[in-house]
TrEMBL record:
Class of this enzyme: translocase
Membrane topology qualifier: Multi-pass membrane protein
Enzyme Commission (EC) number: 7.1.1.-
Reaction catalysed by this enzyme: a quinone + NADH + 5 H(+)(in) = a quinol + NAD(+) + 4 H(+)(out)
Main location as per UniProt: membrane
Full protein name: NADH-quinone oxidoreductase subunit
Cellular-component GO terms for this entry: NADH dehydrogenase complex; plasma membrane
Pfam families: Oxidored_q4
Family (UniProt): Belongs to the complex I subunit 3 family.
Subcellular locations according to the entry: Cell membrane; Membrane
Role of this protein: NDH-1 shuttles electrons from NADH, via FMN and iron-sulfur (Fe-S) centers, to quinones in the respiratory chain.
Amino acid sequence: MSTHLILSSIIFVTIGLVLIGVFFLTKFLGPNKKDDKLKNTVYESGISNPVGGTNIRFSIKFYLVAIGFLLFDVEIIFMFPWAVNILDLGYAGIIKMFIFIGLLFAGLIYMYKKKALSWD
């Protein structure tokens, strides 16, 4: 066997044993209060007594806005390399990008017609 393989396996085993030892030490040396009522209460965004249940339903418009954001955010990933290489691509690259932008614009019109961008 190679000396590098033996040395690396010893290092990995040592790191694993040290991590296991640290986890056990923190369990025994750290504070351990099981009956702390303040620790077990709900706290969210500065509100210690939330109103309502956790099973509320969100409107589908939240999801439509998120999908629209992803659609138009991912377009930048495709447009930036095109803009960098526009001289090398020539007219064919320009035509293909206009087709791509046209499809994105059609998606925007579809979202507008479905009223995904308007809030009640």
